[in-house]
Amino acid sequence: MAADSATPLLCARALRRLYGRIVALEEVSFELWPGEILAIVGESGSGKSTLLHVLAGQLEPDEGEVLFDLPGRGLQDIYRLCEGERRTLARTDWGFVHQHAVDGLRMHVSAGANVVERQMALGERHYGRLRRLALDWLQHVELDPARIDDAPVIFSGGMRQRLQIARNLVTLPRLVFLDEPTSGLDVSVQARLLDLLRRLTRELGLAVVLVTHDLAVARLLAHRTMVMQLGRVVESGLTDQLLDDPVHPYTQLLVSSVLPP
Amino acid sequence: MRMCDPPGSLERDPNVNFAYLDERTKRMIRRALLKAVCIPGHQVAFGSREMPLPYGWGTGGIQVTASILGPRDVLKVIDQGSDDTVNAVNIRRFFQRTAGVAVTTDTTRADIIQTRHRIPETPLREGQILVFQVPAPEPMQRLEPRQSETRKMHGLAEYGLMHVKLYEDIAHYGHIATTYDYPVLVNNRYVMSPSPIPKFDNPKLNMSPALQLFGAGREKRIYAVPPYTAVTSLAFDDHPFEVQRWESGCALCGSRASFLDEVLTDDHGGRMFVCSDSDYCTSRQGADVRSVISDGG
Ligand SMILES: Nc1ncnc2c1ncn2[C@@H]1O[C@H](COP(=O)(O)OP(=O)(O)OP(=O)(O)O)[C@@H](O)[C@H]1O
Ligand SMILES: [Mg+2]
Predict the structure, then answer these.
(1) Annotated catalytic, B41?
(2) What is chain A's mean pLDDT, rounded?
């Protein structure tokens, strides 16, 4: 974590988002620093996914702003960029790993093409180079390079998540959004995937916003954790402190019900 | 007489409007065409009408032809390069009956050429219009079925997806296996489906002196390539675009420069390669051969 960095990478200011009369987000503000991993925890319906989509430029907030540190331009409200700029940003400097791999992969396109699609979108027109890059990234995420021409539709859940990660990291983004990346996987597969995420985030100095309902995942990966309830942030702090010594009654409840004492 | 000129021309039916469509519809289609010409390669939505032919029979191309046809225009209709398949004959008759226009098989004499799946071998000239029948106008549809998304991708010129398809070809077959409907970039801006012409014809799209119009009836889309517009076929630097080649020339006219079809000559596996463009082939063979083929067909 580069805590001495002068500006935050991402900055949420007083975010509010309604669904009809349901308040999905209210008064959410925080800063994310380069290389920092932030976990968002909270029970089902507390607004975690809504927040993630608002931060990732996919869902405009009703109020508040999301600022991102653009190279050479400083903090910019992402919803004031034109759509083309925002989409380019989203597929170069950001990654988004979906809870369900089918939302984040082209299931009937080979693993290799899934990995290098972003590079092709950026104008890479040399097949040999794309191929080498795909092979490299399959290795980085510990997928068998021999599977490069297989489509993820025949991959296991864990393999699909690895492929999603490779597909997102291929442009070396500075910020990655992860929505419940390990849920629905077997415990042993989860553990290996978490190890992989921990290694890659360190090696690449990635900043991450991680949504999870699993406090153990937050404990393992996140520098800082934010607890949400009914669309609001009720408590936030360094992960270990927050989990070992929760202050807010809701956090105490979460910790006591999930983490055996 | 050219081989396909009908014996005794068909009478125009006085009970239907000129070229079948009513004038308001034709004006609407012409407005869409003008817009299409202004934005080369961009798909323009239009209010496609029911035609007295099923989709897949070129209803998009027919509506375009009907909207631009004038009484003194000479029309040629080809299907897979041939003037005398059922599809070509039907469409030609349709315009003879509804518009009373002169028809020809001679590419050089035609003002408007409606085509399915080929561009004539004889180079087109200024003033000519080539009308393509298009079954599937959206080149990205198979990889991205959401229309809202493909429209956005065109709008923002986000075309990485097109190379995903070419990448897949090379990964699975060792080369770009797409041989028909090979995607092109028009005027350095819009990716376009050239309709299911063989990629052999793609270079003819580039800087053509003729106006090229594309009509998709079922999908209700019109697009265009104005004369002298750059049209490039997508490819990789290390897997450049290439057209089909044959080992020998056409068995009938000897041409080594035209697109060849394989035809069976007997029941014992005998086969030969002949020009797909029948007008080009017969005109190269001379009048004698032409009448022989005409009698046989
Ligand atoms: N598209 C939508 N339309 C209406 N209400 C929605 C929509 N999406 C979310 N909500 C509501 O907003 C609130 C927050 O939902 P959100 O999906 O952000 O929660 P979450 O914390 O991600 O829950 P989970 O852990 O179940 O994924 C919930 O009350 C939910 O019902
Ligand atoms: Mg959620």
Answers:
(1) yes
(2) 94
A120 to B237: CB separation less than 8 angstroms, yes or no:
no
Question: Which residues in chain A have their CB less than 8 angstroms from residue B238's CB?
Answer: 126-128
To 5 degrees, how large is the angle CA B212–CA B219–CA B164? 80
Q: Do both A34 and A142 map to the same domain? A: no
Asked whether residue A98 is domain-assigned, the answer is no
Residues A35, A85 share a domain: yes
What confidence score (pLDDT) does residue B287 get? 54
Per residue in A75-119, pLDDT tens? 999 999 999 999 999 999 999 999 999 999 999 999 999 999 999
For residues A179 and A162, state if they share a domain: no
User: Averaged over B44-69, what is the pLDDT?
Assistant: 91
Residue A249 to residue A235: CA distance in whole angstroms: 10
Helix, strand, coil percentages in chain A from 3-state DSSP, rounded to 5: 40, 25, 35
> Residue B175 CB: number of other CB atoms within 10 A?
10
Single pTM value for the model: 0.88
* Angle subtended by helix axes B160-173 and A127-140, to nearest 10: 90
Q: Does A191 lie in the same domain as A159?
A: no
A33 with A85, same domain: the answer is: yes
Judge if the beta carbon of residue A50 lies within 6 A of ligand 1.
Answer: yes
Residue range B225-247: average pLDDT? 97
Cα of A97 vs centre of ligand 2, distance in Å, is 13
Domain count, chain A: 2
Same domain, yes or no, for A165 and A178?
Answer: no
The percent of chain B in helix, strand and coil, each rounded to the nearest 5, is 30, 20, 50
Asked if the structure places residue A146 within a domain, the reply is yes
User: Measured from the CA of A231, which atom of ligand 1 is nearest?
Assistant: 14
User: Is A149 within a domain?
Assistant: yes
Kindly report, residue by residue over A155-170, the tens digit of the pLDDT: 999 999 999 999 999 9
Query: Could you give the CA distance from residue A75 to residue A53 in angstroms, rounded to a whole number?
Result: 19
Q: Is the CB of A127 under 6 A from ligand 1?
A: no
Which residue's structure tokens are 């994310």? Answer: A32
Same structural domain, A12 and A82:
yes
**A234 & A146 share domain:** no
Q: CATH code at A226?
A: 3.40.50.300
Domain extent for A151: 103-172
ipTM: 0.90
Evaluate whether A196 touches A206 at the Cβ level (below 8 Å).
no
Lowest average pLDDT, out of A36-50, B49-63, B166-180, goes to B49-63
- A229 C-beta closer than 6 A to ligand 1: no
Pairwise CA distance, residues B142 & B140, whole Å: 6
Taking only the tens place, the pLDDT of each residue in A11-56 is: 999 999 999 999 999 999 999 999 999 999 998 999 999 999 999 9
Q: Are strands A224-229 and A37-42 parallel, antiparallel or unpaired?
A: parallel
CA nearest B215: which of B67, B111, B64, B112?
A: B64
Written in H, E and C, the secondary structure of A168-179 is: HHCCCCCEEEEE
Domains detected in chain B? 23-140+177-233 (3.40.50.11310), 245-297 (no CATH)
